[in-house]
Specification:
Layout (H helix, E strand, L loop, with lengths): L11 E7 L4 E7 L2 H4 L10 E3 L11 E3 L20 E6 L15 E6 L10
Antiparallel strand pairs: 1-2, 3-4, 5-6
């Protein structure tokens, strides 16, 4: 809900990739009922996507990641659907150190899907 009191429509962009032949397809889904099977699922979980339409009947996808509306990435192993601040170092995902031994506290999203994700 925005400050004017209007409800903005919920649109989520799904990037569906098939790495075996290098193809990918980006689709916009604006129907809340089509997105609801994704909610409360964790990264690396697999689910059939028959609910997206007849075009996707028989396909099974794996959730591999995403960003929230503000651009914070999802991180595997953070068991929440909100945002947390973690102390990250070299070798962690979502962080690239600039100096030797550098650690930095960064905001990341949990690995559980909810309506605040954009991709």
């Amino acid at each position: 809900t925005q400050s004017t009191g209007t409800v903005r429509p919920l649109i989520m962009k799904l990037n569906i990739a098939y790495p075996a032949n290098g193809s990918q397809k980006c689709i916009l889904v604006d129907d809340q009922h089509k997105l609801s099977p994704f909610y409360e699922k964790r990264m690396a979980s697999e689910l059939p996507i028959d609910f997206l339409g007849d075009e996707w009947k028989g396909y099974v996808v794996r959730i591999t990641g995403g960003n929230d509306k503000q651009g914070f990435p999802m991180k595997q192993g953070v068991l929440t659907n909100g945002r947390v601040r973690l102390l990250l170092k070299k070798g962690h995902s979502c962080y690239r150190p600039r100096r030797d031994g550098e650690r930095r506290r960064k905001s990341v999203r949990g690995c559980i899907v909810d309506s605040n994700l954009s991709v």
